[in-house]
Amino acid sequence: MLDRRKLHYMSEEINYYSKKDTFQTGNVSEPGKGLVFAMACACGIAVANIYYNQPMLGVITRSFPGELAPSLIPTATQLGYAIGLLLLVPLGDLIERRRLIVSQFLVLALSLLFAAAASTGWALLSASLCIGFTASVTQQIIPAAASLASDNRRGAIIGSVMSGLLSGMLLSRILAGFIATNYGWRAMFWLGIPLVLAGAAAMALLLPLSHPVTSMNYGSLLRSLLQLWREESRLRRATFIQGLLFAVFSAFWTILALHLEQPPFHLGADVAGLFGILGMVGVLAAPIAGRLADRRGPGQVVSTGAFAALLAWLILAGWNSLAGLVFGVMLLDFGMQSAMVANQQVIYGLKPQARNRVNSLFMVGMFIGGSLGSGGAMLAWKIADWKGVAVSAIAVALTAFLVPLLLQRNHS
After folding, report:
1. pLDDT tens digit string along 304-362?
2. How many whole angstroms separate alpha carbon 333 and alpha carbon 279?
3. Where are the transmembrane segments (predicted)?
4. Are residues 193 and 286 in the same domain?
5. Does 198 share its domain with 161?
6. Domain count of the fold of the chain
C-alpha cells in the first residue's frame, strides 16, 4: 500500500509533465510504408556522414603532410556527434520536429561544403566537428518515428528506421573508400551535399507537423535531463545494458585490424574493411527484433541479444580462424542490434512528451560504453593480445546477460 509521501510525489510528477512538458502529434494516422522508408533513408544519409572519413583517413593525411589535425578527424567527428546528442537532440521536445530536422540537414550540408573546400588540416578538423554535431539529426528522426507509431507497432517501426541507420553506417565506408580511391577525398564530401539535401527535402515534404507545448526554456530543458535520469529506472537499466553491449561491440571493431595482422591470419586493413559487409546481419535483425519485441515483449529480445553477444565472444575466443571471426562477428552484430531496438522500444514508451530527451540520455550512455569498450580493448591488447581482449569482453557480455535476469528474479 502506498504511503502519502509516495502518492504526493507521484501526483507532483504527473502534474509537472502534464502542465509544463506535454507533446502532441495532432491527428496523425499511423505512418505508412512510404513515410517509414523515407525516415529510414534520411537516417542512413545523416549517419553516413560520421563514417565517411574513416576509410579516407590515409588519403586525407597525405593531402596535409606534417599536420597533426587530419589524424584527429575521426575523433573530432565522434566528439561533435556526442555534443549534438547532448545539446541538440533534446530540442525535439521543445521545437516543432519537422522544422528542426530540416534545419539540421541544411546546416549539415553547409558543414560538408566547408569540409570539401578545406585548405588546411585544421579547417577540415573544424568542419568535421560540425559534421558530427549536425549529423545527430539521426537521433531526431528516430524519436519522431516512435511518436507517430501506435504502441503495438512501435517496435516494428523503430526496427525499420534503424535498418536505414545501420545501412548508412555500412554503405558509407564502402562508398567513401571507392570514391576516395578513384576521385579523391574531397569528391566524397561534395557528393554528400546533394544526398543530405535530398534527405532534407524528403523530411520537409513527408514528415507530419508536430505540436510541442511547453513552457520550459532551453536551460530548463537541459536540467530536466537529470530529473528524467533520476526518475526512470527503466531508462537507467536499458542504458546500462546497451552500454555494456556496445562496449563489447566496439572492442571487436577496435582490435580487429590488429588481430588480423597477427598469426595465423597475416591479413591487411583491406580485409578488415570487408568485415563491414557482415554488418548486413544487423540491418536484417533490426526489423525482426522490433516485431518480436511488439509480440513477446522487449525484455525477452534484450536477453536474447545479450546472450548472442556472449556466445559470439566465446566463439571468438575459442575458434581462432577466419571462419570463427566471420561467425562470431555476425552473431555479435545480431545481438547488439536486436537488444538496441528492443531497448529503444522500452525507453520510447516511458514519457511520450520527453522522447527526445530520453533518447539523448540513452544514446550518450551508449556512446560512453562504446568509448570505454574501445579504450579497454586497447589496454587489454597491450597486456595480453587477443586473449586479453576476449576475456574482458566475455566478462562484460556476461554482465549484460545476467543483469536483466537478476532484476527480473528480484522483481518477481
Report:
1. 999 999 999 999 998 888 899 999 989 998 899 889 888 988 898 888 778 888 988 99
2. 7
3. 34-52, 72-93, 105-125, 156-181, 187-207, 240-259, 271-289, 360-383, 389-407
4. no
5. yes
6. 2
Range of the domain at 66: 30-213
For cell 522544422, name the residue.
99
